C-alpha cells in the first residue's frame, strides 16, 4: 500500500499475506503508525491496495459492503439521533428494501438489547457515557448482521473496568453469533485474551506481518482464571517480546 503525499510516495505496507478463517477472532497489533488501521481500511474496502488484492468470501473487495461492518474508536454515532435511530439507520441501509418498518425496528431493538443498551434507546449520544456510546456503536455494527466485524481500537478510549466489561461482552457476542472479528489494538492483554491469532506487525515504513501467534486457549475464556494460566502467560510474553525486544518502536529506541 503506497500513499501519494506532497513529499512523494509513502510506502505504508508491503508483502501482506494473511488468510483469516470464517468465525476467527484475529487481533492486529503493532506500534503506532505501523499500518494497522490501513490494513483494516483495506479489508473494509475504504481504500484500495496499490498492488495485490483482497478477497472476501471468494470475491474481490472493491468497496465497503454490508458483509463487513466497522466499529471505530470514537464510536462515530450521529449526535442528533437517538441511540435507537442511530442503529435503525444502519438497519435500514441493509434491510430497508426487503423488510417492513416493524421488522426493521425489531432488529434495532434486538441489537440494543444484545449490548445491554435497550434502556437508553431514546437518549442521544451526548447524554450517555463513553462506554455506552461504544456499546451503541457495536450494536449498530451487529444489527447489520455482518459476516465480518472490523474493529479499530474499539475500547481504546475507555477506562480499564469498562474496557474489561466490553471485552467480555464481545467474547459472548462472538460466541453467540459466530461472526469473524478483526480487531486493531495496542493492548497485549486484550489481544491475547480475545484472539484465536495475534498478527504482529513490524514497524513502518513498508511495515509487514512479522509473526502470527496462535492462542491455544479454550473458550469461553475467563480473565481472572487466565491471569495465572501458563499458556496465557507464555502467549503474552511472546507478544511483549516481539513488540518491545525485537521490534521496539523506533522513537523509543
Ligand atoms: N491517507 C494517507 N496518506 C498518507 N499517509 C498515510 C495515509 N494513511 C496513513 N498513512 C501513513 O501510513 C502509516 C500507517 O498509518 P496507520 O494509521 O495505518 O497506522 P496505525 O498502525 O493504525 O497507527 P496508530 O496505532 O497510531 O493508529 C503512517 O505512517 C501514516 O502516516
Describe, in short, the structure shown:
With 253 residues, the protein is an alpha/beta fold. The protein has eight helices and ten strands.
Biggest sheet overview: 6 strands, mixed
Q: Are there runs of 5+ residues with pLDDT below 50, and where?
A: none
The CATH superfamily of the largest domain is identified as P-loop containing nucleotide triphosphate hydrolases
Please report the total strand number as a whole number: 10
Which sequence of SSEs, written as H and E, runs from N to C? EEEHEEEHHHEHEHEEHH
Helix content: 25-40%
Radius of gyration: 19 Å
| Bound molecule kinds, no repeats | adenosine-5'-triphosphate
Residue fraction in strands? 15-25%
End-to-end span in angstroms? 26 Å
Mean pLDDT: 93
Individual helix count: 8
What is the structural class? alpha/beta
Here the CATH topology of the largest domain equals Rossmann fold
How are strands sequenced across the largest beta sheet? Answer: 6-7-8-3-9-10
The CATH C-level name of the largest domain is Alpha Beta
The tally of domains stands at: 2
CATH architecture grouping of the largest domain: 3-Layer(aba) Sandwich
Coarse morphology: globular
Features:
single chain, 253 residues, alpha/beta, Rossmann fold, 6-stranded mixed sheet, two-stranded antiparallel sheet, 10 strands, globular, binds adenosine-5'-triphosphate, membrane, ABC transporter ATP-binding protein, AAA+_ATPase, ATP hydrolysis activity
Structure characterization notes:
This protein is of the alpha/beta class and 253 residues long. The chain folds into 2 domains: 17-67 and 146-247, Rossmann fold, CATH 3.40.50; 76-145, no CATH class. Helices cover 38% and strands 17% of the residues. It contains 8 helices and 10 strands. The protein has helices spanning 36-44, 83-95, 101-114, 130-143, 160-177, 188-194, 223-226, 230-246, and strands at 2-5, 8-11, 25-29, 55-56, 59-60, 68-71, 148-152, 180-185, 197-201, 209-214. The strands form 3 sheets. Strands 6-7-8-3-9-10 form a 6-stranded mixed β-sheet, with helices on both faces. The protein has a two-stranded antiparallel sheet with strand order 1-2. Strands 4-5 form a two-stranded antiparallel ribbon. A hairpin with a 2-residue loop joins strand 4 (55-56) and strand 5 (59-60). Helix 6 packs across helix 8 (230-246). The longest helix has 18 residues, at 160-177. The radius of gyration is 19 Å and the shape is globular. The model has no long low-confidence stretch (mean pLDDT 93). It binds adenosine-5'-triphosphate (ATP). Adenosine-5'-triphosphate binds at residues 3, 5, 10, 12, 30, 32-38, 204.
